[in-house]
Amino acid sequence: MASSIYSRRRFLRSTAALTGSAFAVPNLLLRGQDGAGKRLNLAQIGAGGKGQSDTSYVTLEHNIVAMVDVDQDRLEKAAKAREKYHLNANQPAPPAPKLYNDYRKMLDEMGKDIDGVMIATPDHSHFLAAMWCLKHGKHICVQKPLCNTIWEVRELHKAAKEAKVITQMGNQGRTMEGQRMAKEWIEQGRIGKLQEIKLWTNRPIWPQGIIGKKPVPVPAGFDWDLWLASTPLEPHFDLDLPPEKQSKRGTSVHPFAWRGWWQWGSGALGDMGCHIMDATFNILGQVIPTKIEVESSEISDLCAPQWTSLKYHMPASAKQDAMIVSWNDGSKDGVPNKPAKPDMIKQDTWDKATSGMMFIGSEGIVFEGDAYCEHPRIFPEERFTEARKAMGDGTHKKTEPRSPTPGNPQLEWAHCIVNGGTPGSNFDYSAALTEFVLLGNLAIRSQQAISWDKEAMKVTNVEAANQFIKRASYRPGWLPV
């Protein structure tokens, strides 16, 4: 939305205010260019859906010179929507981007004219698109989850470090004030000693569970072969579901229902975990769990379950004791699979929290009834009142660096390319966060508790689980060489 986009003047004022923070480090990647007024040339891979909103977050400040989508209709609509966005913001229509169906061709033809690339494809092609961009030396901003296998996450992180580019994962909460406040409240004793964390979501809002495939013709203008990318070739299909289980979005695997399929998505956990687990990961000192317990509805080799309950066993960090982080998703028999409501939280507040988090301490709870930790509160209310008073009179200590572009990870990434610094969800942070999330899927797919050896990248107690760490194979021509 236009209101979420910083004007250039406000953008530069906010940058100046951050002197001394993590965002004020000189950037050596501008190759002698003057950063103060630079408009980047950016490309968008995955132009429809989330890609369209990602484009909107930067297009008023920077040049979108290329857009890529395997669905020609969505590609053309995304280009028109961007033009309309400028006109609605009282700006002249921007130069039209070049449109492509294959990002490999786009990079071959336009690589020298592009500074950075945003990637918002289905999960299975994040790794491939990002690696092609790194081959061409481009800064990259990749939607969450970073990849949908742990091996890909680690390989992408390693390649990005070697390329020495500016990286970002698109999790909005990492840029927001609320996540920082929650961490500072806990560290400054507002809820006593942190003892337990509970997380939940109403996802999936797409079909998951036991699902069949119904072969159907490929829609006009949609390149199914390019959509499959490196995954094995198979006939195009719709989800074979009875009417009562069909989503209002229809039965097509593209452009939405792929999220529930292990081959292309990451299930409810992978879709929302990098949002909802983000504050937890930061508050606990970015540690990786050593064990994950699981309970879920029936699963298949193809799809994630309709509901899941996980217990992540978190080791102690420099600031926190070892503790359990629980995760609940989906619905059981039509009832949301949420944790039990604490007595101190009112029923109407609880009922509205379709996704959320609770940081449970010895003397109170930090509660957020949404996915991004944007507006956390403290219960009981008198402790929230005390926290707000401390924030007003200056006794609350701001120990976490603030983002220059709250709510906008794409613009934060572009800001760091131009002005220097490190985005909050750069790959040093978001690769480990994604691994934290995806470990739950190893337990889900194994259907038993797993023990994780981070250094060896291996499940130590269930050998069968290790087959899910890395994709079985990649079709020729998709991994850059």
Q: Quickly count the helices.
A: 14
Uncertain residue segments: 1-33
Name given to the CATH homologous superfamily of the largest domain: Dihydrodipicolinate Reductase, domain 2
CATH class of the largest domain: Alpha Beta
Number of domains: 2
CATH topology of the largest domain: Dihydrodipicolinate Reductase, domain 2
CATH architecture group name of the largest domain = 2-Layer Sandwich
**Largest sheet, described in full?**
10 strands, mixed
End-to-end span in angstroms? 39 Å
Shape: globular
Number-wise, the strands total 18
Radius of gyration: 22 Å
**Helical coverage, percent range:** 25-40%
Structural class: alpha/beta
Please sum up the structure shown.
The protein has helices spanning 8-16, 50-56, 72-88, 103-110, 126-135, 150-163, 177-187, 224-228, 267-276, 278-283, 347-352, 381-393, 409-419, 427-446, and strands at 41-45, 63-68, 98-100, 116-119, 139-143, 167-170, 194-201, 212-215, 237-240, 291-296, 307-314, 323-332, 335-336, 356-361, 365-368, 377-379, 450-453, 458-459.
